[in-house]
Amino acid sequence: MDYDTTDADSFGRSLRGIGLNLLVRDVPAEVAFLETVFAMKGHQVSKGFAIVTYGGQVFQLHSDGTYAENPLLGLLPENPPRGAGIEIRLYDTDPDAAAARAEAAGFTVLQAPSDKPHGLREAYILCENGYAWVPSRPKG
User: Fold this and answer.
1) Full strand arrangement of the beta sheet holding 108-115
2) Quick one: pLDDT band at residue 64, thresholds 50, 70, 90?
3) pTM of the predicted model, to two decimals?
């Protein structure tokens, strides 16, 4: 599927398995963060929506305004961080390289890359919406 040209109906009908949709205050800014730090790719990026790919995975970003009729909107906190309690784990991303890119771009590295007892080397990087992005690789 060409994520840059697909229409909403075709895209929606193509989704399978488990999906991830993040509500964010500024879609283009979140896409810039994901592309800069994790080399993800944003498709059809607008003020209200983006399709994002990470390897063979796909997920969505929506702005708060697109959720005007959705009951979830009323649960969002007015003050950040809104993503507290969720870890988005990126098992195919070098945590050392991602943390270096995040620091260089002025993003928050909550925890520097370190080896964990569960067999992974990982870091915790926060986006402006408070989501914890966790690049991870098996310990070398």
Assistant:
1) 87-90, 132-138, 120-126, 108-115
2) confident
3) 0.86
**What's the CATH code of the domain at 99?**
3.10.180.10
- Strand-pairing partners, residue 49, are 62
Contact 24, 63 (CB under 8 A): yes
Residue 46, φ and ψ in degrees, nearest 5: -140, 180
Is 130 inside any structural domain?
yes
Look at residue 1 and tell me whether its pLDDT is greater than 70: yes
Please report the beta strands in 8-119, taking only residues with DSSP state E, as ranges in sequence order: 21-24, 41-43, 49-54, 57-63, 87-90, 108-115
pLDDT band per the 50, 70, 90 thresholds, residue 16: confident
Rg of the chain, C-alpha, whole Å: 15
Containing structural domain, residue 67: 8-138
Say how far apart CA 83 and CA 60 lie, in whole Å. 15
On the CB side of 72, CA atoms within 13 Å amount to: 11
Beta bridge partners of 42: 52
Total number of domains constituting the chain: 1
